[in-house]
Design brief:
Helices cover about 35% and strands about 15% of the residues. The protein has four helices and five strands, in the order βαββαβαβα. It has helices at about 15-25, 60-65, 85-105, 145-160; strands at about 5-10, 30-35, 50-55, 70-75, 115. Strands 3-2-1-4-5 form a five-stranded parallel sheet, sandwiched between helices. Helix 2 (about 60-65) packs across helix 3 and helix 3 (about 85-105) packs parallel to helix 4 (about 145-160).
Length: about 160
């Protein structure tokens, strides 16, 4: 069974916008999530896609986002708490938001694939001086350093648990 419609979270980000373009180029229908008041929302103007404005901290929205999609590419995250954002808000967006996506996915009978975009930064301290190529996720322990890489590592743990 092939995928027809996918959800891309974080669709205006560097990775997300490229994923949207690639998906369209490969014949997929795309539902894209962007945050309210996103200064990068213009990145989606050139695409014929369904754009949903919302926040992954809203569990009900996450369930609605996954209705009718067969695949999810979860790229949404915040790189670090920007000025005015508390550490708790940052945690809720990156970690609890991923939890909400996974919970919605678990309850979606039609979902075939979920891809979680992490970062090689979760291996930043291994070995000392940097990561040797290639990264072997099955052999290298995650050693995040900082809020962003910690939130990504926690997202990976959530995915592993599901």
């Amino acid at each position: 069974m092939s995928l027809n419609k996918i959800l891309v979270t974080g669709a205006t980000g560097r990775l997300g916008a490229n994923v949207v373009k690639q998906a369209l180029d490969n014949g997929y229908q795309v539902r894209a999530l962007r945050i309210p008041n996103d200064p990068k929302s213009f990145k989606l103007n050139a695409f014929d896609i369904e754009v949903v404005v919302g926040d992954l901290r809203d569990a009900k929205l996450c369930h609605q986002l996954l209705e009718g999609v067969e695949g999810v590419i979860h790229t949404a995250n915040i790189l670090g708490p920007p000025g005015g954002m508390s550490d708790a808000e940052f945690f809720d967006i990156n970690v609890k938001g991923t939890f909400h996506v996974l919970e919605a996915a678990r309850r979606n009978d039609h979902l075939q694939h979920l891809i979680f975009a992490s970062t090689d930064g979760v291996y930043a301290k291994y070995p000392p001086g940097g990561v040797e190529e290639p990264i072997r996720e099955d052999e290298m322990p995650r050693r995040p350093a900082g809020w962003y890489t910690l939130s990504k590592s926690m997202g990976e743990e959530l995915c592993d648990g599901y």
